[in-house]
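sanity check this fold:
=====
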Amino acid sequence: MSSTFTKSTARNIFYGGSVFFFLLFLALTFDTMSALPKRDNSANLTESAIRGKKIWETRNCIGCHTLLGEGAYFAPELGNVYKRRGPDFIRAWMAAQPTGAPGRRQMPQFNLNEKEMNDLVEFLKYSSEINTNNWPPNIEG
């Protein structure tokens, strides 16, 4: 190693690099915080969607499914299921569970009434309208 690389040089590189990456972190944080409000879809948040989120949480749907990449990977991603399948399919699928197909994972029957089912579908609709920058990359979740 060169004799010109001293403790002082190493200290300056460390502090200079630390300041540089701290400033880079602040710039990226500012950019993210300014971009997110434009993409969050909060203008379309309805009371029905809020009740649907409560159903999503109390039935622990995220324990098996992912929603916009968050959750378990046991069952399909549901961030775009409303666009892929539509509200009638979602209602029919939920009503038909468990299917009893041998060798397949089975979703439990949650016995949702019509209002709860509509609220859950409204929540999935709201979720599908969030600008996710094309996430998930696979349209089937």
Notes: The helical segments are 7-39, 47-58, 81-85, 87-96, 114-128. The longest helix spans residues 7-39. The chain has a mean pLDDT of 91.
